[in-house]
Hints:
With 419 residues, the protein is an alpha+beta fold. It has 3 domains: 1-176, Alpha-Beta Plaits (2-Layer Sandwich), CATH 3.30.70.270; 184-237, DNA polymerase, domain 1; 253-401, Dna Ligase, domain 1 (2-Layer Sandwich). It is built from 15 helices and 12 strands. The radius of gyration is 24 Å and the shape is globular.
Amino acid sequence: xxxxxxxxxxxxxxxxxxxxxxxxxxxxxxxxxxxxxxxxxxxxxxxxxxxxxxxxxxxxxxxxxxxxxxxxxxxxxxxxxxxxxxxxxxxxxxxxxxxxxxxxxxxxxxxxxxxxxxxxxxxxxxxxxxxxxxxxxxxxxxxxxxxxxxxxxxxxxxxxxxxxxxxxxxxxxxxxxxxxxxxxxxxxxxxxxxxxxxxxxxxxxxxxxxxxxxxxxxxxxxxxxxxxxxxxxxxxxxxxxxxxxxxxxxxxxxxxxxxxxxxxxxxxxxxxxxxxxxxxxxxxxxxxxxxxxxxxxxxxxxxxxxxxxxxxxxxxxxxxxxxxxxxxxxxxxxxxxxxxxxxxxxxxxxxxxxxxxxxxxxxxxxxxxxxxxxxxxxxxxxxxxxxxxxxxxxxxxxxxxxxxxxxxxxxxxxxxxxx
DNA sequence: TCTGGGGTCCTCAGACGA
DNA sequence: TCTGTCGTCTGAGGACCC
Length: 419
């Protein structure tokens, strides 16, 4: 059986997408992300990477490393539309497409080979289609499983150079008999699920490479890292990953959070922001026909200390008002007088809403009308006339309704954000 | 003027009922 | 009746991913 799991990753996706609509910026150091003082870098062009600018770095630091760079505020909805066109290209070659993020997906092409040829040829065709139709480049890894395919993609990527990307392989295939030779020299940090904390723990027991990890007794690894993670890493070091490519994925939670350009001190303002986020969470729930039972609140204070609180309701809900009221109750258990940097409201324990809903007193307004009906009516009006047209009074701020939308502030406040 | 947003999964501790 | 144990649920927090 040949390797038939494919991982496709767009090269510097957000920047590349911007260069398609702003070709005059080609060849320059370009950074996309949150342009405000509290923003982070979402993507850097290969010219900017040559200055040491990488994604997830604070915009502040990126500006210091590369003052000449052109900083663009990320445009999530534009990238999402480009992404959906790229995903459509994948679906020409196999129905088994599992999007990982806007710029990345797994494909199982095991059933497509009679029609489209071997995986390597399919990868070349996909790269050609994406280049011709979207003007973007991508890298592809092909291997017997998802974990190895993703690692293979890293080996296919371009490298940064001062005059732009130095082309990589474009497509890298890892066959069954090559697995150990491919994996052994890699640092443990390249394994899925190994971050800085686990790297430090492994380092303490003398493990820095996958070869050392593979040679380490499984029982000792479990003693050092715990049952789940120890067994997981032992499997990965041997190149074993049983996860299938799942075209249909179910969501388990959804949330909104926001870092404010300036810290919040007023209880009233904190309450308004909580209701604004709860309203958005409720709207998304209704749009997806989900109900949720557990309300989650996240608070980050001025000193970056972070607290989470949650409460499980007796009856699941999709009402922004109920979510907001409970989140407001949770925030009272946190001492916020030192200043709030970030607030987040989320919901988990999700069920499909067509299973029937048991109404609670919270769903019924004082005039006898049902809040759920009111919120659905607002959804419909916003659908027709825009999100600024109508909204609950509880989310009205000095700046107007400012409804929260998914990804609208994905990488932190923009440079021109008003309070 | 340093450190985002949206997720998933795991661990641990405490409460509670059998 | 009291005590210990076990499983389950809930809540908080941490690690990790893109």
